[in-house]
């Protein structure tokens, strides 16, 4: 699944570790999500969406779309 | 979720490391204690030896469960995948050895070596899965 987390994070000048702390996961988890190796759970996706004040669809996009 | 101070996270990581270390030392030392108890040849000594040898894994399992429960979903995924692969590999190894023994290609293996092989398989899969998930694009 593609996502725009890296763009949104860098736009706020946050490090991967800082974003991880804000949503309660490790830096490794953020790296894996940004690189598309790990799809987050729905609760984590909602946390990210709330943090960036956007909808989940604005962050994540299915591969086939 | 409130931000957790860096020193609190560091303390937690250090505590976890020492728990791992302690449980690994227990697993490493217990067989020697168990052997010495068994070699007393008394019934009580043999029972105690079996108990010590078997129960020595409990701290490691307990620490594993504590670490997994306290981790985020990404780390839990890594552990789950590694455990599944380790279980499948161990089952295949056991099956292979069983058939090799049945076919008279080898004698029945030493169970002590098998325990170590199972632990090694788990460690290898954990490393492989972590690498697969964590390497940068």
Count every beta strand of chain A, where a strand is a DSSP E run of 2 or more residues.
2
N to C succession of SSEs of chain B: HHHHH
Shape of chain A: globular
Averaged pLDDT of chain A, please?
Answer: 91
Secondary-structure element order of chain A, N to C: EHHHHHE
**By helix and strand content of chain B, what is the structural category?**
mainly alpha
* Oligomeric state, counting identical vs distinct chains: heterodimer
Tally of alpha and pi helices of chain A: 5
Computed Rg of chain B: 19 Å
3D architecture notes:
The complex is a heterodimer of chains A (65) and B (137). By secondary structure, chain A is mainly alpha-helical. In chain A, 58% of the residues lie in helices and 6% in strands. Chain A is built from five helices and two strands; from the N terminus they run βαααααβ. In chain A, strands 1-2 form a two-stranded antiparallel sheet. Chain A is globular. The termini of chain A are close together. Chain B is mainly α. Helices cover 82% and strands 0% of the residues of chain B. The longest helix of chain B is centred in the N-terminal third of the chain and has 33 residues, at 6-38. Chain B is flat and about 55 Å long. At the A-B interface, helix 2 and helix 3 of A face helix 4 and helix 5 of B.
Question: Briefly, what is this?
Answer:
Chain A has five helices and two strands, in the order E-H-H-H-H-H-E. Chain A is mainly alpha-helical and 65 residues long. In chain A, strands 1-2 form a two-stranded antiparallel ribbon.
């Amino acid at each position: 699944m593609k996502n725009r987390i890296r763009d949104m994070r860098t736009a706020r000048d946050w490090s991967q570790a800082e974003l991880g702390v804000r949503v309660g996961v490790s830096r490794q988890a953020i790296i894996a999500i940004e690189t598309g190796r790990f799809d987050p759970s729905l609760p984590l996706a909602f946390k990210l969406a709330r943090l960036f004040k956007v909808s989940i669809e604005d962050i994540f996009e299915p591969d086939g779309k | 979720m409130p931000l957790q101070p860096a020193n609190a996270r560091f303390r937690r990581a250090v505590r976890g490391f020492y728990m791992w270390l302690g449980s690994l030392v227990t697993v490493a030392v217990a067989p020697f204690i168990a052997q010495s108890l068994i070699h007393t040849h008394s019934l009580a000594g043999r029972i105690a030896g079996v108990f010590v040898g078997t129960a020595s894994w409990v701290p490691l399992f307990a620490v594993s469960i504590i670490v997994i429960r306290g981790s985020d979903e990404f780390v839990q995924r890594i552990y789950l995948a590694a455990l599944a692969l380790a279980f499948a590999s161990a089952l295949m190894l056991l099956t292979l050895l069983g058939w090799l023994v049945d076919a008279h290609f080898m004698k029945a293996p030493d169970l002590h070596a098998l325990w170590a092989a199972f632990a090694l398989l788990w460690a290898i899969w954990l490393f492989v899965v972590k690498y697969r998930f964590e390497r940068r694009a």
